[in-house]
């Protein structure tokens, strides 16, 4: 029986998805379709272009030791906004990180491919702040069911879709493209199970990383932003009936957050452990 996998957001915590994929690959239980939002969109996209779980694991280890390669702070914008704030003028600060380095890195990993070139059913999500609708980038519109407040699109570089989907509000600047202002897809759909089902995959294994995300006593401004969004996403996740066949919820350390790149390997190990524990059930549900 074929099945798809839907991956939630989580920033650096998204490394847990790689652990899940490693366990599935090891067991010979690889999904035939994928959907993802935010960090989940990156793992989904890399899997769709043919990267193995083992190769993704190597990338996680590399980034855990050299995360600065993806950090491009908008220092001029930050300082300028502070000055304007004290002058009582409007500020135009939209995020701490530009996201350009991340997009270039992802473009290299995906060879600049367009999502329409993918053979595997792939759905990567973002949210347009102008229209307030979910933008679902899909490799093909064949067999796709229309949904309320969802716009399906097929023409975009995979790396650009990943970058847009990963634009965590206030942390990454929105991605401006085709007259849209795109941010993290998790704002409207934490775990895009419903979108994968609408794209034609009835059997979905979901991975949710939104749980166990406590507020630190010494929280900084980034912690406040990410935790506020996490609370919103958690409520949304409970409200929406996603329809997954099975949900994996890795227990991640409380010390992890969107930007704790140094703990990515720990998150990856937690994802692997969670998937291994559920593997008998996964095989029972998704094996003909």
TrEMBL record:
Motif residue range(s): GXSXG: 36-40
Active site: 38 (nucleophile), 184 (proton acceptor)
Pfam family, one: Patatin
Annotated PNPLA domain residues: 5-197
Molecular functions (GO terms): hydrolase activity
Motif mapping: DGA/G: 184-186
The protein's name in its UniProt record: NTE family protein
UniProt organism field: Sporobacter termitidis DSM 10068
């Amino acid at each position: 029986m074929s099945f798809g996998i839907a991956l939630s957001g989580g920033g650096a915590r998204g490394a847990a998805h790689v652990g899940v994929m490693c366990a599935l690959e090891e067991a010979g239980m690889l999904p035939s379709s994928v959907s993802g939002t935010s960090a989940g969109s990156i793992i989904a996209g890399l899997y769709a272009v043919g990267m193995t779980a083992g190769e993704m694991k190597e990338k996680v280890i590399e980034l855990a030791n050299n995360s600065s390669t993806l950090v491009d702070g908008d220092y001029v914008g930050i300082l300028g906004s502070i000055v304007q704030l004290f002058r009582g003028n409007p500020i135009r600060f939209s995020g701490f990180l530009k996201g350009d380095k991340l997009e270039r890195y992802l473009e290299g990993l995906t060879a600049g491919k367009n999502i329409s070139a993918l053979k595997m059913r792939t759905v990567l999500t973002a949210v347009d702040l102008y229209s307030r609708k979910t933008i679902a980038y899909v490799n093909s519109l064949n067999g796709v069911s229309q949904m309320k407040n969802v716009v399906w699109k097929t023409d975009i570089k995979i790396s650009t879709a990943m970058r847009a989907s990963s634009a965590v509000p206030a942390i990454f600047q929105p991605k401006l493209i085709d007259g849209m202002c795109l941010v993290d897809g998790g704002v409207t759909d934490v775990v895009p199970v419903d979108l994968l089902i609408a794209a034609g995959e009835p059997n979905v294994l979901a991975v949710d990383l939104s749980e166990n995300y406590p507020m630190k006593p010494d929280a900084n401004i980034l912690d406040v932003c990410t935790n506020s969004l996490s609370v919103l996403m958690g409520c949304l996740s409970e409200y929406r009936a996603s329809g997954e066949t099975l949900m994996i919820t890795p227990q991640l350390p409380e010390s992890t957050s969107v930007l704790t790149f140094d703990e990515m390997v720990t998150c990856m190990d937690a994802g692997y452990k969670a998937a291994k524990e559920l593997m008998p059930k996964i095989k029972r549900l998704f094996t003909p």
